[in-house]
Amino acid sequence: MPYHWSNTPQGPDVLSLTAHRSLPPRGFALMILLTAGMISLPLLGLLGTAHLWQMLPFVAAAVWALWVALKRSYKDGHVAEQLTRAGDELTLVHNPARGEAKTWHCNIYWVRAEMHKADGPVPHYITLSGNGRTVEIGRFLAEDERITLFDELNRYIAKA
């Protein structure tokens, strides 16, 4: 799962959420290599001709465009959230791919978790309410992960 709880007797309870990485770095390199190889295969018939040099910039541009698109996808995937409990204080820190981190604090006894099954930006959208604000949590998770997370959050808040 792209989220996990860490409960230590000495420190605060922490819930860490990260976006799922479907293409690991090794797969990234393999994808670029296979694309470059497959796109260059038709150029073998042009070896030794002047047409090869006319086609080569287009092949290089296509591989470069794939590289840039995958790198951008990796950068957009660096979204993380951390829910921390220290005493009665519950803190949610959202670190977006671009921009500054957003922080929300609330007394855990006033927190209410809600699931919006259909009327959110994603199905089974989870929000936390408290301290006069409503914040989202786990929007980047898969639908079944959000459902499981909602149940775990409700148990955690009720336990407090």
Which structural traits does this protein have?
160 residues, alpha+beta, PH-domain like, three-stranded antiparallel sheet, 38% helix
The number of helical segments is: 3
H/E topology pattern = EEHHEEEEEEH
Q: How many strand segments?
A: 8
Proportion of helical residues? 25-40%
- Helix/strand-derived class? alpha+beta
Query: What is the CATH superfamily of the largest domain?
Result: Pleckstrin-homology domain (PH domain)/Phosphotyrosine-binding domain (PTB)
> Distance between termini?
24 Å
The largest beta-sheet arranges its strands as 1-2-3-4-5
CATH topology of the largest domain: PH-domain like
List the uncertain runs: none
Write up this protein.
The protein has 160 residues and is α+β, with helices and mostly antiparallel strands. The protein folds into two domains: 3-21 and 79-159, PH-domain like; 25-76. The protein contains three helices and eight strands. The chain has helices spanning 25-40, 50-76, 143-159, and strands at residues 3-6, 13-18, 80-86, 89-95, 102-107, 112-116, 125-130, 133-136. The strands form two sheets. Strands 1-2-3-4-5 form a five-stranded antiparallel sheet, with no helix packed on it. Helix 1 packs antiparallel against helix 2 (50-76). The longest helix is centred in the middle third of the chain and has 27 residues, at 50-76. The protein starts with a strand and ends with a helix. The model has no long low-confidence stretch (mean pLDDT 89).
List the helices and strands and how they pair.
Blueprint: E1 3-6, E2 13-18, H1 25-40, H2 50-76, E3 80-86, E4 89-95, E5 102-107, E6 112-116, E7 125-130, E8 133-136, H3 143-159
Antiparallel strand pairs: 1-2, 2-3, 3-4, 4-5, 6-7, 7-8
Helix pairs in contact: 1-2
